Structure to design on (238 residues):
């Protein structure tokens, strides 16, 4: 999925839904070994926000967000619907009206080579000043430095919120390990992600943007030229 457009991935999943199961069983295995799952932070944060917010979870996987942020309207989207709460679609084309949502979440789901289309589509589906939350693995950014990425997202009509991020998850992954001894075995050396920590101690980044007032001019290109390519997140069998 990191090496194809969303549309190609959708066609592949439609032709062979087992691919999704294979990916997700591997993904779930990896997540268990991570020092921390950014989805937990997103769930915690959204649970403290107004219950009137309409939230869209883009690339929802197992749709845990909808399950664990109850009393909120959460619509979940992924290539394959794991249950009836999920709408199967390519998130570069959401079956949603313009300015539907207050919050759009991409938790580790900016996977397509055309991920700028996912962001442009999220912007369409977000209300003015709507919140865009993005969690990504630090190793996907060149030199673990997300500044080009942030500038690219801003060029699509978003503004990074003051304070930069909800959380940078900075600090060695081990710092977060104490909370769950069982996870200790999965510390940095065997976390299963190709995140070598070079140049930064951040493991994940969680960005919070707002949809900016400024409309993007129709003459502007799709925006892909402003956004850096993100490295694939490689899962290693150990
Ligand atoms: N957000 C979930 C799942 C992360 S795995 C969580 O944090 O647990 C990334 C998910 O993004 C996968 O389920 C994958 O199928 C989905 N995804 C990637 N590209 C997509 C696309 N073009 N359209 C819809 N979903 C996509």
């Amino acid at each position: 999925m990191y090496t194809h457009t969303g549309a190609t991935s959708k066609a592949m999943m439609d032709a062979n839904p087992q691919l999704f199961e294979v990916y997700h069983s591997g993904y779930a295995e990896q997540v268990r070994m991570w020092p921390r799952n950014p989805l937990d932070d997103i769930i915690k944060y959204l649970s403290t926000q107004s219950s009137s917010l309409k939230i869209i979870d883009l690339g929802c996987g197992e749709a845990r967000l909808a399950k664990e942020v109850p009393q909120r309207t959460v619509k979940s989207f992924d290539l394959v619907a794991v249950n009836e709460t999920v709408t199967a679609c390519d998130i570069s084309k959401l079956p949603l009206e313009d300015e539907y949502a207050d919050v759009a979440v991409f938790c580790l789901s900016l996977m397509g080579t055309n991920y700028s289309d996912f962001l442009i589509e999220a912007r369409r589906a977000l209300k003015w000043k709507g919140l865009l939350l993005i969690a990504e693995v630090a190793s996907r950014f060149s030199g673990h430095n997300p500044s080009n990425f942030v500038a690219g997202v801003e060029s699509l009509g978003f503004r990074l919120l003051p304070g930069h991020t909800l959380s940078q998850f900075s600090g060695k992954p081990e710092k977060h390990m104490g909370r769950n001894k069982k996870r200790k075995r999965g510390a940095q050396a065997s976390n299963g992600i190709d995140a070598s920590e070079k140049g930064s101690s951040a493991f994940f980044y969680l960005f919070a943007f707002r949809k900016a007032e400024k409309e993007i001019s129709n003459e502007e290109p799709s925006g892909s030229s402003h956004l850096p390519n993100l490295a694939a997140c490689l899962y290693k069998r150990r």
DSSP finds six helices and seven strands in the chain. Residues 10 and 211 are 27 Å apart (CA to CA).
